[in-house]
C-alpha cells in the first residue's frame, strides 16, 4: 500500500478492517460490495484503532489540508487514487456572539455546512460513498432522495464517471432536481414521499443490479458524515462542547457524529465525557421525538408528514434505533419545533448574525432556544449548532414585501 505522508489528501492509508452489524454483531468483508446484514441491520465500518492511533494524532493533523480527507486513516478508501473530491469538509465553526448573549448560552457556535460543494453536508456522505463505490468497481448507483442527497451524489457520481439513478418527490426543492439533471443523473419525480421513492428504487435494484446508495443501505455515507464530529472536536482544540444540536431526518448526521465521538474516545483524543446530542425535528414530522418520549428503541412511521424543512421530512428512518441509542447514551434529547418557529429562527440568524441558513439549520436553532428556555441547556453551557445547508438553496422559503423606490425618489 502506498505510504505517502503528505499531499492533497494528507493521510497515509486507511485502517478499515471490517464491516459490522450493530444489531447482531456479524462481521463482513470490506473488500467486497456489501449493503445490509442478513438480519436486516445496517453495516458500520470498523477500524484497527490501535494502528490508526499510531499513524494519526491531533499533532499530525495540524499539517494536513483543510478537507475531510485529513482523517483518511479513519475513512474507508484504501487507495488515494480512488478519492473523488470537490474540496469538501473543514467547514467554519463560527461563534454567534449576539444570539449567545440574547439567550444566555455559555457559548454558541454554528458549524456551517452551507459553504460545502453542492451547498449541504450531504456532500460529505457523497464524497466518501462515491469514492468507495469507485474503489469497488461500481458503475451504476441508485437512490431515493428528498433532494440534497441526490444533488450531492449526482455531482460526485459525475466526477467519478458513475451513472446515478435518482428518484425524488415532486415537492423536493426545484434546485435539487436541476442539480441532478445538470450533473447528468437519470432523475425521476414521484407524486409521493421519500418512502414511496424508496420502494421504486428497491424494485429497480432488484431487477437491474444497481448499487443501492440509499441511506444506510451502503456502509460509507455515514463515514463521510462522521467527519463533522471530528471537525467539531478539532476546531474546539479537542474540547468537546456540552451540547450538539442536529436537525434530524434519516439520522445519518447524528449517528455519524456519535460514531466519531466513540472513535475519538477510543483514540484518546477526547476524554470520557460526551456532548449531549440533541435531535431536532419538525412538529409535522417528528417520529424520533415521539419515540424518545416513550423511551422506545425504535420509531413508528409518522403519517401525513409535512414541514418547510424538507431535508428532515423522513417519516421512518432505517437507522432510527441508532439515532435513539446515541441520544440515550449521551444523555441527550429530542425536540420538535413548528414551521412558524423555523421561519422565525431563520430570519433571526440572518438578521442577528448574517447567517442565512437552511430551514433545517433554523430548526436546530429553534430547538436549542426551547431547551434553553426549559433550562435543559444551562446558562454556562457550550452549544454547537449544525447548519446543514445554505439558505440560498431555498430561495422561496422566506418572502419579503420589498417596496419600490421611484427613479427620482429619495431614501
Ligand atoms: C438530509 C438533510 C438533513 C437531515 O440529515 P440526516 O443525516 O438525514 O438526518 C438535514 N438538513 C439538510 C439540509 C438535509 O439535506
Ligand atoms: Zn445483523
Verbal overview:
The structure is a single chain. With 411 residues, this protein is α/β, with parallel strands linked by helices. It has a domain at 93-119 and 221-393: Rossmann fold, CATH 3.40.50. 36% of the residues lie in helices and 15% in strands. It has 13 helices and 13 strands. It has helices at residues 49-55, 58-61, 97-103, 122-135, 148-160, 174-182, 194-208, 221-235, 252-267, 287-293, 320-329, 339-353, 359-373; strands at residues 16-20, 27-28, 44-47, 93-95, 107-112, 140-144, 163-169, 186-190, 211-212, 243-247, 276-282, 333-337, 382-387. Strands 4-5-13-10-11-12 form a six-stranded mixed β-sheet, sandwiched between helices. Strands 8-7-6-9 form a four-stranded parallel β-sheet, with helices on both faces. Strands 2-1-3 form a three-stranded antiparallel β-sheet, with no helix packed on it. Strand 6 (140-144), helix 5 (148-160) and strand 7 (163-169) form a beta-alpha-beta unit. Helix 8 (221-235) packs across helix 9 and helix 12 packs across helix 13 (359-373). The longest helix has 16 residues, at 252-267. It is globular. The N and C termini lie far apart (67 Å). Residues 1-7 have low confidence and may be disordered. The structure holds pyridoxal-5'-phosphate and zinc ion (ZN). The site of pyridoxal-5'-phosphate has 17 residues, from helix 5 and helix 9. Pyridoxal-5'-phosphate (PLP) is lined by residues 120, 122, 148-149, 247-253, 311-312, 358, 360, 388-389.
Amino acid at each position: 500500500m502506498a505510504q505517502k505522508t503528505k499531499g492533497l489528501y494528507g493521510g497515509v492509508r486507511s485502517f478499515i478492517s471490517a464491516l459490522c452489524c450493530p444489531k447482531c454483531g456479524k462481521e463482513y468483508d470490506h473488500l467486497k460490495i456489501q449493503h445490509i446484514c442478513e438480519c436486516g441491520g445496517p453495516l458500520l465500518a470498523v477500524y484497527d484503532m490501535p494502528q490508526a492511533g499510531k499513524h494519526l494524532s491531533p499533532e499530525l493533523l495540524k499539517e494536513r489540508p483543510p478537507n475531510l480527507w485529513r482523517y483518511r486513516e479513519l475513512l474507508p478508501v484504501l487507495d488515494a487514487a480512488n478519492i473523488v473530491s470537490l474540496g469538501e469538509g473543514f467547514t467554519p465553526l463560527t461563534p454567534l456572539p449576539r444570539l449567545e448573549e440574547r439567550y444566555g448560552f455559555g457559548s454558541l457556535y454554528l458549524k456551517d455546512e452551507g459553504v460545502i460543494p453542492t451547498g449541504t453536508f450531504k456532500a460529505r456522505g457523497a464524497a466518501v460513498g462515491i469514492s468507495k463505490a469507485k474503489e469497488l468497481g461500481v458503475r451504476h448507483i441508485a437512490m431515493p432522495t428528498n433532494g440534497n442527497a441526490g444533488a450531492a451524489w449526482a455531482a460526485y457520481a459525475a466526477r467519478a464517471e458513475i451513472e446515478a439513478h435518482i428518484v425524488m418527490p415532486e415537492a423536493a426543492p426545484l434546485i435539487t432536481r436541476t442539480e441532478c439533471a445538470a450533473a447528468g443523473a437519470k432523475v425521476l419525480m414521484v407524486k409521493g414521499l421519500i418512502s414511496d421513492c424508496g420502494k421504486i428504487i428497491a424494485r429497480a435494484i432488484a431487477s437491474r443490479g444497481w448499487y443501492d446508495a440509499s441511506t444506510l443501505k451502503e456502509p460509507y455515507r455515514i463515514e463521510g458524515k462522521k467527519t463533522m464530529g471530528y471537525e467539531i472536536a478539532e476546531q474546539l482544540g479537542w474540547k468537546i462542547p456540552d451540547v450538539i444540536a442536529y436537525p434530524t431526518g434519516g439520522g445519518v448526521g447524528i449517528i455519524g457524529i456519535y460514531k466519531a465521538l466513540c472513535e475519538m474516545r477510543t483514540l484518546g483524543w477526547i476524554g470520557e465525557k460526551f456532548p449531549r446530542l440533541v435531535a431536532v425535528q419538525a412538529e409535522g414530522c417528528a417520529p424520533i421525538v415521539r419515540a424518545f418520549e416513550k423511551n422506545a428503541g425504535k420509531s413508528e412511521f409518522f403519517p401525513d408528514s409535512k414541514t418547510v424543512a424538507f431535508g428532515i421530512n423522513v417519516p421512518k428512518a432505517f437507522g432510527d434505533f441508532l439515532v435513539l441509542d446515541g441520544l440515550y447514551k449521551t444523555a441527550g434529547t429530542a425536540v420538535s419545533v413548528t414551521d412558524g418557529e423555523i421561519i422565525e429562527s431563520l430570519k433571526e440568524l440572518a438578521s442577528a448574525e448574517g447567517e442565512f441558513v437552511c430551514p433545517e439549520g433554523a430548526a436546530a436553532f429553534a430547538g436549542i432556544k426551547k431547551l434553553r428556555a426549559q433550562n435543559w441547556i444551562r446558562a454556562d453551557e457550550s452549544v454547537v449548532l449544525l447548519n446543514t445547508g445554505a439558505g440560498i438553496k431555498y430561495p422561496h422559503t422566506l418572502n419579503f414585501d420589498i417596496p419600490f423606490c421611484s427613479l427620482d425618489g429619495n431614501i
